[in-house]
Amino acid sequence: MNHCDSIPLIEKTQEMAKMGSWDFTPAYNRMRWSSGLYRLLDYSPETDEPTLENLLALIHADDRSLVEQVYTRSFSEGKRHDISYKIEGPSGTVRHIRDKCEHQIKSDGSTVCSYGYLQDVTELEEIRIAQQRSRAESDQFAHIASHDLQEPLRVIIGFLKLLENRYGDQIDAKGRDFIERAVKASLQMELRIRELLSLSQVNTRGALFRETEVDQIFDEVRHRLLPVIENKKAKITCTKLPKLEVDGEQIATLFYHLITNGLQYNASRRPEVSIDCRTEEDGYLLAFSDNGIGIDPQFHRRIFEVFQRLHTQREYQGIGMGLTKCRRIVERHGGAIWVESSPGKGSDFYVRLPAS
Ligand code: ADP
To answer: What single DSSP character describes residue 242?
Structure first.
């Protein structure tokens, strides 16, 4: 036969995706494995039983007790799971696996059927580890560079000020203007170096994640911004926010930047920022919406890069680091941040955070 029908579609898909699936019917205490799963686990349908015990037997010792706990909870409570762990084949090769499972539950709460899939994600995991390593290296580089640059810059600023104080009356107006500009530029540079240092510290100096009332974080940030809110006659609203396992200080920084930007890049007579939170399958989606000047879609990615700004200092003050820091913070929490906006239509900044 030389047409596609000769190869079962699902079979080929599972092989290409390096995955396999299973289902389990509690009423018959029967588990079935797809041939993809036998292949993935290096088992043979002729000699190996498709049982949960056989599946769990391959889990790497480092992860076994945690995975067993997840499975026990998943089956006893009928809760879906989505986890990653390592398995170790008979030859000792270690592979990274993503494991997803769902249950079909009857109205009386009992399970009709459970089904799931396992996928070999070793290549993705290796890329992730390499990215993590290179990010750690660049954070370390930024940290050392900023530290080392701060010292000579302080000396430059100090001597410029000394020059102005001691010899200011011997220098003409043009000369004093030059000194003033040099001091201003040096202070700008000092600010940028400090911001670079603080960006590198998002990962290296972050606190442990703890259960935190995000409502409380919002209240604190709002309190800090009261003078700006009153000055701009602005309105900030917020729906009920959840308890999340996060680094509270970093989430406060995130709220601070997103709210201040919504107020700053805003030409309305009554600037408004509203924060909304929606529960999603695996976490939460926070939306920070404003009625500001909006952003051309061609710049939606660029504004999250280091020192990228769309305006001059004369139009709006800033150094272009707020959103970069927001992105780092969100990524450290395993989430994502993006913007939807167009000029004159306000902006919606979205932050997706995993449940835990
Ligand atoms: P900064 O505010 O210091 O310039 P950010 O990284 O916070 O740095 O923002 C980068 C750029 O993105 C800003 O200069 C501005 O042009 C644009 N921007 C950020 N937030 C908004 C917003 N809510 N509405 C319109 N433009 C925004």
So the answer is: -
